Amino acid sequence: MINMIRKPQSASLAFMVAGAVWFVVGAVYGMFSAIHLVAPEFLPHVAPLVFGRERPVHVNTMLYGFVGTMLTGIGLHYVPALLKTRLWSEPLGWVTFLFWNLTVLSGPLGFAFGFTQGREYNEYVWLADVSLVIAVLCMIVNVTLTIMNRREPQLYVSIWYFVATFLWTACNYPLGNVMWHPATGAMPGLIDSIFLWFWGHNLPGLLITPLATGAAYYVIPRVAKTPLNSHTLSLLGFWLLIALYSHIGGHHVLQSPIPSWLKTISVVDSISMVLPVSIVVINLWLTARFVGGRVWSDPSARLVMAGVIWYIVTCIQGPLQSLPFLQRVTHFNNWTVGHAHIAMLGFGGYIALGAMWHTLPLVSGRPVYSQRLINLQFGLLTFGLTGFFIVLTMAGLVQGAAWYNGETVLRVLPQLIPFMVMRAALGVFILTASIIGLFNVYMTLRGAREQETLRHLEEAT
Amino acid sequence: MKMTPAFVIVGALLVFWASAFIIVGIPSLTMKETPSEIWRPFTPLEARGHRLYVENGCSYCHSQFIRVIDWGIGAERIAKAGDYVGIEPAILGSERTGPDLSQEGGEHSDDWNRAHFLNPRNTTPISLMPAWDFLSDGEIEALMAYVQGLGGKAADLRVKRQRDWKRQAVAAYAAGVDANIEWLHGQVPEVWRRMPNPYPATEAALQRGKRIYQQLCINCHSPIGDGNGPAQPHLNPPPLNFTILRRHLVENRYIGGIFYYQIMNGITGTAMPYFKKHLESEKIWDLANYLAVSFVGYTDANTDPRGIDASYESGWVNRYQPPALAPGR
Prior knowledge:
The complex is a heterodimer. Chain A is mainly alpha-helical. Helix content of chain A is 77%, strand content 0%. Chain A has one domain (2-442): Cytochrome C Oxidase, Chain A (Up-down Bundle). Chain A contains 17 helices and no strands. Chain A is globular and about 75 Å long. The relative contact order of chain B is 0.11. By secondary structure, chain B is mostly helical. Chain B has helices at 5-30, 44-55, 110-118, 120-123, 137-148, 152-174, 177-186, 190-193, 203-221, 256-265, 281-296. Chain B is elongated, with a radius of gyration of 26 Å. Chains A and B meet through helix 3, helix 5, helix 6, helix 7 and helix 8 of A and helix 1 and helix 2 of B.
């Protein structure tokens, strides 16, 4: 046990494996939620599986559990690797792992029985909040000291993003979760929605985005076998991200009675987000220029590159839908749900998976069990998610246009049935992709295989 | 620009806090909590219901703010900042799979709410909401108290109206089947009582009416219109048995206008909701024809008094005969 947690890269591996497990758990809860939107009487009288309780399990497990955990594991590999050193403390990495995953675990265990603060993306109860903050602080110490012990003078852009992610989260999370009110985790009155959406949008923006960007900046040049296109663009992307992103949460409550100047800032800065996003995407694409074939034919890099494409799609759609004129039709309906899925699964999830498949052999010393299964996962995810995006966007437009023209919410429900059926069917593809991923991870790491590899090596020599 | 460790760490934090100060700090310093004209504090039971609302994730499908562009339920009052004073947390919501609830208090009777929480399909056949029958009776009561308080003082007014009319409706029901119907008819304005259904009861119209009946009415009034749907055990007075109307046509002739009026406005105090926000004119008249033909065996559609036929109408002739009066009536 002691040896295991001292083994170099073991914490990184643990985070990646946990991410693969959480992906399956989150997808199962997503599947239940999707079925309940088609057949509300499915599994009746099972309190932990009513929509109001299973939806936050799905959302939080996917955000923190799958994407957040997996990307953290990848970072724990590339940070020491890029600094030509070891992680300062592997056991401290495991302490981080423990507290981080306790928080994630409090979702399925707690929400199912009503232990939630109920604020979207801020649901974890206070003790779980504390656990997450401990994890984040441990990570800051570990990474900072790793940087101090580095043998590579330059800090590569992925390092900036990884360090900054945890610095920002250490400030962001307690603030948005109003941790100084342990009982409710909320401010009294309307101002709570400003705190809520401060973290609500910084979670994708300043936790998932920098982690995923850092991972993409790590994988793409490695696979393309070229240096990164431009240091200047990296700088611009990084500083614009933090200068703009934290301002835009207000676009979630744009039509509510919050102060007008807040709405203006949130819309203007939402539109401005096109800048840092394009800069990152252009920088990565120019890095892969002329060697696109090399990147695209590598199954793991293909996932990362597809994630970058989802990123630009998400971040063109996002700023557009922050416009008040468009929000009249797109707010409060499945349009937003479609957007959330391409952001978290498309951008964050694809890059997490791709970078994980790229990093797993580097960490475990074993080649990935099956490249074809990675391709299959890519295909299933891409079909499922593209379908999801189209179906949910259509459903959202049906809802939004109908409401805007005077139909009541109730009367529009029957119109959603075909879309909800298709969405549940497409969910099967995503769930299958998550299970195939976990299987591939398991087969890569299982003990017997090490001996097989050794035997092959012996036979070869 | 050389990104040294100190520069990355200090810079990232500085920009973050400057940014956060604008978006969270300034609102905290400047936003004032001033109660709006409809605000009032929660009662202890409502506060408990609010906790249940938060803990069970009701906010994932129900928003709690009405926008200037809204038409639907509650749209009479646009949300104001002062509506949320002291509520912790006041979850505005991000999704409307169900209707906005900020003005839900008094929209429906207590009976309707109870039947709806136990199984939303009881009162709303097309609802996607989960059944909350696994909650204790006390918890359901707390949730109901919370929902009936949504809208503050404006809700109190509506709830009082519901409860006042419920007393009268229950008394009328207790007075007997026929007295009850006379009472119900008496609540419909005079001009509506002698108004025949101006829409022809064609086959197509009856099919349309049937679809609406199945989507909105069937679980109270039952597939055969006798008022014994699955919601019936929870409702007092129970849903109307339409077949009795056969002996209560106005002047042994008219029923269309009464149906229209009662569907449109509902019967406040009972579990019968109004449908005038859900259904526009033709749909209500089609439904009225469906009720009349299916459960009364007679419709007054297209009978006198009537004006010029609308241009699409194809000269449908009403062949339904009013029922023969029972001896002694």
